[in-house]
Amino acid sequence: MATEKKVQPTTKVEETLVEKLARIELENEKLRNQEEDLEFRLDSYIEVMSLYPGKLNLSTEPSGKGKRFSFNDFGEVKRILYNDLASVMENYRSFMEKGYFYILNEKIIRKHGLNDMYANILSKSMIEKILNCDSKLAVKLYQSATPAQRENIDSMLVQEMKVNELDLNIISQISKISGTDLSKLAEEAKALDAIPVT
């Protein structure tokens, strides 16, 4: 069995070169480990969550062709093969940018360079804080939402106000930001629901 000999530096210049070489080797090892962490098998499952308040269909090919994944409700999670998810991401990038669906794997987000996009998308828990009218966070979170997420949150708040009483001060502040009177929309929706179907 061969043993490794350590090179003993004889001068200060050689000493700094050996130190630099050792540091570079250590950095290269770290980079190789990070790359291995970002490797995914095409047949691994990745969890994806719908943040759309209704039916959301995603597919592996444009125009709903290919393998289809249907979400029925806000917050529903599906496990999608990484190979299929990569195709969905390619074909439904605008849905991803709008925050209609959310990939629940930080390594995938990093691997595909989506960190900046995901910094602007609200997660399910953040949206729920708005829907629950969290006095400290609801308005700030709403302000930071994408325009598409704001529209979805508006419709969810209207549905919630039809059934439950919410903090009208927070609803008023959100209404000012959205430019829509959410309380009025909720009252109109209640009135429509009260009309008997003939």
Describe the 3D structure.
The protein has helices at 12-37, 82-91, 93-98, 106-111, 115-119, 124-131, 138-144, 147-163, 168-178, 182-194; strands spanning 45-50, 56-59, 68-71, 77-81, 101-103. Strands 4-1-5 form a 3-stranded antiparallel β-sheet. With 198 residues, it is mainly alpha-helical.
How many helices? The count is 10
Shape call: flat
Q: Which stretches are poorly predicted, pLDDT < 50 over at least 5 residues?
A: none
Order of helices and strands: HEEEEHHEHHHHHHH
Q: Rounded to an integer, what's the Rg over CA atoms?
A: 25 Å
Average pLDDT works out at 86
The overall strand count is 5
Reading side by side through the largest sheet, how are the strands ordered? 4-1-5
Query: Beta fraction of the residues?
Result: 5-15%
Q: The biggest beta sheet, please?
A: 3 strands, antiparallel
Helical content class:
55-70%
Structural class by sheet pairing and helices = mainly alpha
Query: Could you give the distance between the termini?
Result: 91 Å
